Amino acid sequence: MNFRKRQRDDEIEINLIPLIDVLLVILIFLAATTSFNRYQQLKLTLPQASAEAQQPDALHLAISHDGLYALQGQLLPGTTAGDIAQALRQQADGAVDQVLVIDADAQAAHASVVRAMEAARLAGYERVHFATQAAP
Question: 31 in a domain, yes or no?
Fold first, then answer.
């Protein structure tokens, strides 16, 4: 026996209108607070530095804007990290704790400077300094 009455009038409904209203408000908020700036190029102003007195026994590795390397004023024939590291080892003559100063041209490629740093690591240099222009 079934004592319950079936009522077809009470069907369950989900009201989607308040949900849509809330989503539209969130969408408007996100659109209003989002910035759509497109950065084509970062413009950096590199800092000036004031340096201490140079150490007279430091090795100087110069990097030209063409990616050529010179150690103590002598042009190096190779431009790979291994070639530079070999020249650094020969110049150091087994000296422990020698300072390497990298003089990179302002127009030198970043890869050339990183290659010089890698060569210093391969040669065993622990103290690497960078030459800068004095602040006016």
Answer: no
The boundaries of the domain holding residue 108 are: 65-130
Q: How many domains does one find in the chain?
A: 1
Over the chain, what HEC string results?
Answer: CCCCCCCCCCCCCCCCHHHHHHHHHHHHHHHHHCCCCCCCCCCCCCCCECCCCCCCCCEEEEECCCCCEEECCEECCCCCHHHHHHHHHHHHCCCCCCEEEEEECCCCCHHHHHHHHHHHHHHCCCEEEECCCECC
- The answer as to whether 6 is a domain residue is no
Q: What is the pLDDT of residues 51-101, one digit of tens each?
A: 666 666 788 898 888 888 988 888 898 889 999 999 998 888 777 678 888
* 83 domain-assigned: yes
Confidence category of residue 126, pLDDT binned at 50, 70, 90: confident
Quote the pLDDT of residue 3: 63
> Is 86 within a domain?
yes
pTM: 0.59
